[in-house]
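Technical note accompanying the year-one report. For the benefit of new consortium partners, we illustrate the data format agreed upon in the data management plan: each record pairs a sequence with a structure-token string. No post-processing was applied to the example shown here.
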Amino acid sequence: MKKTDLAKSDAKKLMNQMGAKGAAFGATAGAPAPDRRQQRERDRALGLVPFAVKLNGDLAKQLQALSKERGVDLSELVAELLQKGLSV
């Protein structure tokens, strides 16, 4: 094995250790991870369906600011605005 191959191998090992599953840094290190399966089951029981869209950055900021102003979840705000928009 060449010296450069050995250095590449060491670098790969180091990168794999740094990006290991479950590795958390900063404020998220101490916080418990949410149980996504239970969250999906709760959402399904409420009749909620995941719905991803791509929005302009300015529009997303407006929606986030409005949800904070009203004190509601962003999903609730978007659902309300869509219902109002579709009831024309």
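Partners are asked to follow this layout when depositing records. The chain has a mean pLDDT of 84.
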